[in-house]
Amino acid sequence: MASIFLSIIIEALPFVLLGCVVSGLLHRYLDEETIEKILPKNKFLAVIVGTFVGFFFPSCECGIIPIVKRLLSKGVPEYVAFAFMLSAPIINPIVLFATFSAFSNSFRFMWLRFFGGIFVSLLVGIFLAYFNKEKVLKKIAEHDGDSCSCSCSCGHDHGRHSHGDHKHSVLKSASDEFFDSGKYLIVGSLLAAAMQTYLPTRIIEHFNTNLPLSIAVMMLLAFTLSLCSEADAFIGSSLLSLFNPAAVVAFLVIGPMVDIKNLLMMRASFRSKFILKLVTLIIFLAFIYSMIVGVL
What we know:
This protein has 296 residues and is an all-alpha fold. The chain has one domain (2-295). 72% of the residues lie in helices and 0% in strands. The chain contains 14 helices and no strands. Helix 4 packs parallel to helix 13 (260-269), helix 5 (78-91) runs antiparallel to helix 7 (107-130) and helix 8 (163-198) crosses helix 13. The longest helix has 36 residues, at 163-198. It is globular and about 55 Å long. The protein starts with a helix and ends with a helix. The model is unreliable at 140-161 (pLDDT under 50).
């Protein structure tokens, strides 16, 4: 259990740190006016942009929560931010190449994973754009008027600050995010290690008797293992001899979207009622997509 716990922490921490640094950069250099200019006015087009921009962010799910939290606090609509959150850990080139390599240089599972990520991200984004009326963030960060050195529209004259002040602002914001997210990563990793150690996987194998049940079991396995998206494809390929391809696709799609550690990290930033609605929708859509793969 200790070995698994440390391996998850060592694997995840660099990506959490990267996500927090990106969050700090967004905090310092991205303002509401820029966002308004970049995003399309049409909600559906904005969801598409949020989904596919994840291709350019080589971050796994371990580091994506701080980035999404910062985007929301900067005024990015939730339907754009969460479409990005779900797609980025799956459709970025690093994860796609890892998936391609894990399945013996086969494009089949790489493309099934890619389209699964797009399918779930787009539909979640559309749902949030047209049907969600709830608040997402628990609270919006309030800036201290005496120490503000960022572009937060607080009325201070930011033009007087030097390049060194800008770096300090980025690093301070990144470090705050890192220690805020890190404690939930540690707790989540401990729970994931306990599940991997004490959950009898041999019993799980016996559920591979029908398609819906096998998909559900593999989704549960992805949630409990809590692997980074750069590494989970290698575990998925090793399970291909035990489970049908549709169940393995479910494992590859749901894992980067919902697992123990990022669920706890979401719990720290987002409202519980919203998280419940979001996770339920993600699980439902991933299950439907996997069933379609199994039938076809």
